[in-house]
Amino acid sequence: MTRSKLLLVASAFALSLSACQQAGTGTEQGSTAQGTELGIVPASMDKSVKPGDDFFAFANGSWVKNTPIPEDRSRIGAFTIADQERERQTKDMIAEILKANPDAGSNEGKIANFYNAYLNTDAIDKAGLGPPRRTSMRSAASPTRPS
Q1: Rounded to whole angstroms, how far apart are CA atoms 56 and 60?
Q2: SS3 category, 59
Q3: Single pTM value for the model
Q4: Domain residues of the chain, as ranges?
Q5: At what angle do helices 107-119 and 78-100 cross, to 10 degrees?
Q6: What is the pLDDT of residues 50-77, one digit of tens each?
């Protein structure tokens, strides 16, 4: 495995692990008991349901009953909540970077430049398909490797 692929996999793993360990999404129904740090929230369980009859309702019944589905969604779940949190954090990070007016050569400056270019629809419309066409022509001209 090349070094860049290994770095990418390690970064993805580290982000996933840190996201799993963060608490406070605002949807917990009680504090997590000692020894249940792996995501078992007893308050989310519906202990009136027998696990052998309907394990999903047993394990998640209280959470399902007490978690409202937002008006703009057809469903809600842990992945949706995590994605909403990621969207909020990304929006806040970009807003902070844009407020700071960073140097163009810094990582923050590159992020600000990339974001502003994304918002510049006039320049995107003016360039048309030229940039993606050049990229696809380079890709088509590159030699292929046997697998």
Answers
A1: 6
A2: helix
A3: 0.51
A4: 43-75, 88-142
A5: 100
A6: 999 999 999 999 999 998 998 998 998 8
